[in-house]
Amino acid sequence: MKLYAQQGHGTGDKINEGLDRGYIDGAILSPKDYHLDRLKKNLEHFKNNYPNADRMVDPQYYATLIASIDGVRLGKLTSDEYSYFEARRRGQLESEMQIQNDLETTLRFQASLPVTHILAPNIIIPQSLNSIEAVVAKNFIRNTRSVWSSLSDDRPIYTTIAIGADALRDRQELEDFLTDITLLDKSPDGFYLLVRRDSIVTTNQLIDSQTLAGWMLLNHSLKLNGYEVINGYSDILTPFLGVAGADAGATGWYSNLKSFSMDRFEPRISGGKQPIPRFLSCALLNSIRFDELQRVRDIVPKVMNKLESDDFYSITNGSSPDNKTEEILQTWDAIAHLNSSITEDDVVRNIRQCNKWVDQAQENYIQVNSCTKSHLQKRSDHSHLEPLRYGIQMFTDLAEIDLTTD
């Protein structure tokens, strides 16, 4: 399973370092954060120096529906360089001709770039898969292949599915949606999945069980129907999605690059604080603060990953990395390590592996909590484990997977 850098503000040498060390397999670039000349320069750099790495650009078309809001933060997307990006109203997109025109403009733009995969545009389905937004989104999906074929380009085309967490909660709607998009006459090569999780970004849970189950089912169903599946902003959930059949996941160095939301586009409510460095522990299936790591690592050595990137968190430096680059390198290394445990085309074995991860993490947290000096703050504690456990079980039930088979 592949892991990509989800690029955003403050890139520096992070992606180069990740590729050099073999922690990531490519990058998904953000036009919001790059002028076009720099976007092209970076893509050419990756092409020339990392020819085996995948190169993609998320057109971020889903932000067109909020482009008219006062104070919206669209960055470089509003420049004339990105001519495909214009403010849209939902009513405009109820016209299939408008959808076809926007598809052609956006895909033609991407075809001019040295990318390896094309990511087609779409809007977000916020709350229900039985809604006008869902109809619009399915029209984007249905028209993607025919529009791309008209441009006579043989690079693989991935159509975007962007769904709000609430829209994954209705099982019947989800099954009907999957039936509609997997029985297309003219199919894309794959899908770029984005699950918007605004409601949990500020909590200590990674994800709620229903959202995880629905997200895993999307991956499983699409893969069973022969599609490649790339998950954006999937972070530590990447290996869990890989268990369900995903081909790739992605994450970046800030919270808005780890979880997909519209926060990075919407008007800023208040100034943010400088994020505290964190360490992603495979043994805990969670990231903990550097100062928490410093207190815990000698008492429960299992929290360390025994990977090369552990060295960035030296105990003599208070278990703090020197910079943001070292922090994201450690995250990529840890996720890639978990990904390596996934066996292709063996979903039963993979689910058992998932359950084993959660059971072991529960045991490791018990050891951590038994030490009075190792108190963890809410974001670092064990409260994410039950949603993970129940989410895996719900997915298993939804997909009708029998874990009793060998």
Helix content: 25-40%
Average pLDDT for all residues: 94
Number of strands: 11
So what's the overall shape?
Answer: globular
Describe the structure.
The protein is an alpha/beta fold and 406 residues long. It is built from twelve helices and eleven strands. It has helices at 14-20, 36-49, 96-111, 132-149, 171-182, 209-224, 238-244, 255-258, 290-296, 324-339, 347-369, 385-398, and strands at 2-6, 26-29, 54-57, 118-120, 124-125, 157-164, 190-196, 228-231, 248-251, 278-281, 286-289. The strands form three sheets. Strands 4, 5, 6, 7 and 8 form a five-stranded parallel β-sheet that branches. Helix 3 (96-111) crosses helix 4.
Give keywords.
406 residues; alpha/beta; five-stranded parallel sheet; 11 strands; 38% helix; globular
SSE inventory with pairings:
Blueprint: E1 2-6, H1 14-20, E2 26-29, H2 36-49, E3 54-57, H3 96-111, E4 118-120, E5 124-125, H4 132-149, E6 157-164, H5 171-182, E7 190-196, H6 209-224, E8 228-231, H7 238-244, E9 248-251, H8 255-258, E10 278-281, E11 286-289, H9 290-296, H10 324-339, H11 347-369, H12 385-398
Parallel strand pairs: 1-2, 1-9, 2-3, 4-6, 5-6, 6-7, 7-8
Antiparallel strand pairs: 10-11
Helix pairs in contact: 3-4, 5-6, 6-7, 6-12, 11-12
Describe this structure in a few short sentences:
By secondary structure, the protein is α/β, with parallel strands linked by helices.
